[in-house]
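Narrative summary of target 7.
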Amino acid sequence: MPESMTANDSAPWDLEAITLGLGEARARWRAAQQRHGAHGSIGFPSRRELDEITTALCAALFPLRLGPGSVRVDTEDAFVRQTLGAALTRLQAQVRLELGYDLNHSDPNSANTAAQRIVGAFSASLPRIRTLLDSDVDAAYAGDPAARSADEVLLCYPGILAVIHYRLAHRLHQLGAPLVGRIIAELAHSTTGIDIHPGARIGHSFFIDHGTGVVIGETAIIGDRVRIYQGVTLGARSFPATEQGQLEKGLPRHPIVQDDVVIYAGASLLGRITIGRGSTIGGNVWLTQSVPPGSQISQARSERQRPFEQGAGI
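Modeled conformation, tokenized:
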């Protein structure tokens, strides 16, 4: 090929026309979003940046297990201090982008102040998040006979990775950075196949065994010491719409699961139903009605106060 000829000289496409067409499509889409009162088009958080930030936060939470191999007990505090200093600064920049993206925070000074407040409150929550995660790891170790140590659970179990991301994402969602929280939760979803919306509310000592295919919706509420297995869905049954045909946002539409409930593999619990405390939901059950405390639900029957056959989640 002569030096004066570029790769595009003989290409069967018109880059100028394609570029122009894509620009016109973007302009139409952004104008429509503005009319619907959705969001602006300038700046948004980076998924790649948040992946690195979340990895650093995980290392700061569990330095000896999720941090670099060079960390030792006598250097933990120094490592955590340095790692958090960098990660929280980067996180604040990402939250600032989200707030700037929202039309309600178009003033730069307002967005900066709000981002500082959110990340400040988030950072103060990290010891509490670590305590919650300790209860989750302990629940996994106690609930799985295949687990030989809590360290194995932390290092190897996809359910724990998903819950770590969820607890970080949930706090950011609570504090007013739902997009950043959603991206963090979706990073774990992509890796583990476990989909936990950051808006869901989950109590302590939560254990997801095996995990792949689990879905927990935005308005789900899960109590303490709940255990679920692979393929479980806590989903919505219907999606109410406005007179204009748009889906209504934020309505309670996912299950409430009370304390000490076990849900075995493949079960689907749909709608704003309540699963009473201490109930057991068998594998592959399709449930759209509330059940009282102590219920034993299987595909074939619904009984109370009778021991449920163990091992259905294996």
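The two ends are 62 Å apart (CA to CA).
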